[in-house]
Amino acid sequence: MKYQLAELVAQSGLSVDTIRYYQSIGLLHPPAHEGRIAVYDESHLDRLRLVKSMSAKGLPLKVIAMLLAKGERPESDRALLLAIEKDTSEARYSGAELARLLGVPRALVSLVERSGLVDALRQEDGAISYSEADLQTARGALKLIRRGIPVRRLLGLAIRHDRAIRKTADEAIDLFNEHVRKARKGAESSPEEVAEAFRELLPAATALVAHHFQRVLVARALRRLERANEERALEVASRAASDLRLRVRW
């Protein structure tokens, strides 16, 4: 079935500006043209409904765009949505709700939001929606602050790490798209294979990065104590480090 833009708006429940924006960032493929009139079809409507569904489950547009990148694979797209549905169907919190649950001033959450660290969580309307995992992560950050680490220095470190990790994340997504989602021997990977690979590889990749960071952090901290000839502190730290086990899922 063919749709003109006004009809696509009515069928999808999305505005003209939203549809055009999705086209501009690659979430929606360009329409055909009959003369000067843009003509859309069922594939455009299916994609819009999929993006709308993923966004409603809390996925930011940047993440949706990366998941759906590298070509038109509607069945694979749906499989990926099902693969991540469990993690995105959890409770969502506004910035005010997050501050209340953490027991901190709303201004502190606003400070983090202004830093750009949570831009990936920003939705189309500009609002930021936090998950249960975000809440637990924020509680971990509060432990660092309560131990005396200045908020602004911690934020500065987090911003520098964020800039570095974005490049790594993009390259990891490229690897997944090129070697898992791409066609193999002339036949595209089945939706089930793509979904299973996503379920398996996401925690594995996350664990790999987290484990490496912990090992490097501990090793460099111990090396500093050794260079400073702080033998007692080194002994205690080495014993504590040997007892640490990062809880990761491979």
Report the mean per-residue pLDDT as an integer. Answer: 80
Instruction: Tell me roughly what share of residues is in helical segments.
Output: 55-70%
Which residue ranges are poorly predicted, with pLDDT under 50 across at least 5 consecutive positions? 246-250
How would you spell out the order of helices and strands? HHEEHHHEHHEHHEEHH
Number of E-type strands: 6
Broad CATH class of the domain at 90-189: Mainly Alpha
Instruction: Give the neighbour order of strands across the main sheet.
Output: 1-2
Number of helices: 11
Query: Radius of gyration over alpha carbons?
Result: 22 Å
Question: What is the structure about, briefly put?
Answer:
The protein has 250 residues and is mainly alpha-helical. Helix content is 67%, strand content 6%.
Topology record:
Layout: H1 5-12, H2 16-24, E1 32-34, E2 37-39, H3 42-56, H4 61-67, H5 74-88, E3 92-93, H6 95-102, H7 106-114, E4 130-131, H8 132-146, H9 151-181, E5 183-184, E6 187-188, H10 191-227, H11 231-243
Antiparallel strand pairs: 1-2, 3-4, 5-6
How would you describe what is shown here?
The chain has 250 residues and is mainly α. Among the domains are: 90-189, Multidrug-efflux Transporter Regulator, Chain: A, Domain 2; 192-250. It has eleven helices and six strands. Strands 1-2 form a two-stranded antiparallel sheet. It is elongated, with a radius of gyration of 22 Å.
